[in-house]
Amino acid sequence: MAAQPKAPKLFKATIPRDRFERRILKRVVLREERSFLLELYALDEAGTAYTRPLELTADQARRLRTIAAAVRHNRGVLQPVKLALLGAVAAAALVFVVFFADNLIERGATRGLESLFGARVEFGELRVRPLQPGVSFGSLAVADKNRPYRNLFELGYTELRFDLAQALRGKLVARNIETQEVRWNTEREQSGALPPERAPAPRDTDDPALEFPRLDQLVSDRFADIDPEELIRSHYGRLTTPEHLTAFAREIEDSIDRYQAEIPGLEARARSAAERAEEVTDIRPAELRSVDAVRDAYRTVERAYLELDDGVEEVRQIRADLQEETQRYRNELERTGVLIQDDIAYLRELVPEFDFTDASAIAAFVVPELYEPLNEQYQRIRTVWDAIDRLRARERPDSPDAGRVGRSIEYPARNYPRVLLERVAFSVGDRAARDLYELTVGAVSSEPRLVDDPTTAHFARFDDEREIEAGGVLDMRDGSAGELEIASKMNGFEFSIGGRSGIVSIEGAKGKYDLETDLRIRRSGFPQGAVRVGLEELALEVPEGDQIASLARDILYSIPRVSVDLEFGPGGAISAHSNLDGPFQAELRGFFESRRRELQQRVGDEAERRLQDELSQREDQLAELRRYREQVEGYVARVEEYRAEVATLRTRLDSRTADLEQEAERRVRDAAEEARREAEGRAREEAEQQIDRALDRFR
Amino acid sequence: MIVNAVARVVAALNSNRRPGEIGAAAGCAVALALIPAGNLIWIALFVALFLVKVNLSVALLTLAALSPFAGLTDPLLDSIGYRILTVAALQGPLTTLYNLPIAPFTGFNNTLVAGGLALGLVLWIPVYAAARAFVQIYRNTLRAKIAALPPVRWFVKLPIVQRITGWVRWANGAYSRVR
Fold first, then answer.
1. Is residue A168 within 8 Å of residue B104, measured between CB atoms?
2. CB of A642 within 8 A of CB of A277?
3. Who among B36, B86, B139 is closest to A404 (CB)?
4. CA A189 to CA A184: how far, in whole Å?
5. pTM over cut 0.80
């Protein structure tokens, strides 16, 4: 037998009218479901209850179950199950915080501080006190990122109490910090460097990795780095002699080339003159018997003479040119000597004077020893400053949604930065009893503009013999210069240094010193301000035979207290002065002036050697020209000699012609006389014959 | 997932649930879409959705549909928010509120948040009424007509739709049994 379909508890066979209408029917929202219920349930005759048949069909029972579920769902507006679930989650979170908050906060604080300081951070026994609210820890060590085996600082047992109201606003405002011990620059057993994956990324900044200006460069032996050859080489282009000699060399080379080309022509001309001379010198005027022959020979000789005369003139012209050029070059070489002396004078002047006007010799002796401790402090300051900067960089503007940013309306309120350390004060001992250890830090914040006061720090340590007091003010508020001002004072400290070399070489020194600093440091740039060093009870060990060191020692011993004032100007420029500058400078000036003169002499010698080398090359060229001139002189002599020979021959021919002409004239005259006599004889004979005949006839 | 959400919305429209649940879900979704996310007000409203009896499928689907266009209303919200936040009469209460510990997380002093909240609250009632009226009209008149349409009948008979409907029924049944 099949089981009777069972109706849900909500739908009993009889339901009071009020309950049915208010708690069931009202919560059935579908019209067909309401109709179904009203068909199934009917109001009794008394009108006080709804009843249904005792037996239901399976379909009716199933439909009633569905309606019952809907009625239950439509009851009330809250979801009790989800509310309970939310409560359970909140309780679980609370339990989680109670049991695991210490570890979580420690891990978060460690990572946060590590990213701020760029080095390992170690907490000991960190406890969260959520109700105060606050945090306490047994110890805190923050490593120095620049020196992994040193701690930047260490804290002993420390309690931090935060502002609850501000904590609920998401701001970490430390109202009170109590610590039992503060130490810094302590040693570490393990490296404090962060592994590469946890090291903070380099900040995108224009800040160079600045160091404290190197004080040991303040005063240096300026001559030590001067190499005469290098000095001349670097300034060679500015000298007049090389340029002059170069132009001069080109001219001489041109002349040499030109005359070298002329020589074969001259040689050929001389040979031709010789041949021509030989041709005519075979003529024997005495052997010439006729005037015509003599005249022919004379014409031949005359032509040869004219040719030789032309050759002589040409060769003489070349000789004259060569003489003139050689003389001109000689004159230029003589002028080069003057230029060389000018250039040497110029180079000698390049050797700097040792000038103590802006640098103290005493500072040169003292300040290199200050570089390491000052730079160490300076880097530590910059590390803390970096940390404050990183803290500030984390201040994010309000941004309700990455894509939708409206305007934030500010109302009157004390607006705290996200992180604020209002004041940390630590003090042990008593100043009057000269046993004090004191540290105060104030107004360290992630948003300085929201804090009335600038960030300040003050440290003091007094004991019987020594005292150190330092104060710093870092004002990063709007309108401020963004400078860190540091003033510190150290008294009664002892120093002991080993040997060092330099202008003043020593084997060791010890004594007492005090130090005062008054520096202003910008985020980028070198510090500016003053450092004053006082030295007392000095004991110097100087190398034997070192006159300068002995001089320095004597002068240092001459007064009870040496004071050195360093002024740090813009761009790392430093000026230093000491109360011993005057006497020390006077002594050192003589020493360094002699070194300067020695160096000038070396520069001059070297320059002269190099320039004379250049000059000797030109002399060689000039000698070659001279050789050419001698050759040309030879050609001139040879051609003139040939011309003279031909001239002599011509004269002899002239004489021979005259002789022959006289002989011929005499012969003609004789012949004419003979003819005349013959004619006269014949005429006389003929006349006598005619007279005879006439006489005959007449007779 | 979207198909499932749409199916659940369709199921909600046809289920024996109060029309106000859907109306409230639509109203809340409009308010959440108008308020920029990432502040305590938005988170509180979103969490509240899960704690009151509103139809989550309708709320989440409506929120997802409106959020991409919420930026278009920013100039209007900024203007409304600025006017509200600078009303002289409200400076006292707002300053007090501003100084309360949790206040910075609410972002109430942001013009978009304030404007979104104000416009969301104002729109909640008409959106609620309109959605509720739509559900009632749908259930009373449209549902039968739509169900009789051939494409709908064909769609409802699809195996995937049958399967989803089955899942929804099973899930609703399981939820009811748990409660």
1. no
2. yes
3. B36
4. 15
5. no
Q: Is the minimum CB–CB distance between B104 and chain A shorter than 8 Å?
A: yes
Closest CA relative to residue A533, chosen from A283, A389, A362, A682: A362
Pairwise CA distance, residues B17 & A27, whole Å: 8
Q: How far is CA A47 from the centre of its chain?
A: 105
Contact: B111, A402; criterion CB under 8 Å: no
The two most distant CA atoms of chain A are separated, in Å, by 247
Residue A552: other Cβ atoms inside 10 A: 25
Length of chain B: 179
Kindly determine whether residue A29 and residue B95, on different chains, have CB atoms separated by under 8 Å.
Answer: no
Q: Inform me whether the C-beta atom of residue B47 falls under 8 Å from chain A C-beta atoms.
A: yes
Neighbouring CB atoms inside 10 A of A522's CB total: 15
Question: Six-digit token pair at A313?
Answer: 């003139």
Q: 3-class DSSP state for residue B110?
A: strand
The answer to whether B117 and B82 have CB atoms below 8 angstroms apart is: no
Residue of A nearest to B110 (CA): A408
| Pairwise CB contact (< 8 Å): A31 & B52 | no
Q: Which residue has the tokens 């100043």?
A: A431
Beta strands across the sheet bearing A139-144: A121-124, A139-144, A147-155, A182-187
Residues A173, A167 contacting (CB under 8 angstroms):
yes
- Which residues in A568-597 are b (16+ Cβ under 10 Å) and which e? beeebebbbbbebbebbbebbbeebeebbe
- Quick check: A517 and A564 in contact, CB under 8 A? no
Report pLDDT digits (tens) over A198-233.
776 665 555 555 566 665 544 455 666 678 788 888
Where does the pLDDT of residue A358 fall: very low under 50, low under 70, confident under 90, or very high at 90 and above? very low
- Are the C-beta atoms of A299 and A247 separated by less than 8 Å? no
Phi-psi region at A439: left, alpha or beta (left = phi > 0; alpha = psi -120 to 50)? beta
* A72/B51 CB distance under 8 A: no
Tell which phi-psi region holds residue A648, choosing left (phi > 0), alpha (psi between -120 and 50) or beta. alpha
| CB count in 10 Å sphere of residue A545 | 7
What are the pLDDT digits (tens) for A9-37? 889 989 999 999 999 988 998 888 889 99
Distance, in Å, from the CA atom of A30 to the CA atom of A452, rounded to the nearest integer, reads 67
Give domain limits for chain B.
2-143, 149-179
* CA–CA gap between residue A85 and residue A87 (Å, rounded): 5
A509-536 pLDDT tens trace:
888 889 898 988 877 777 888 988 888 8
Query: Could you please report the per-residue DSSP string of B13-32?
Result: HHSSS-HHHHHHHHHHHHHH
Q: How many CB atoms lie within 10 A of CB A550?
A: 15
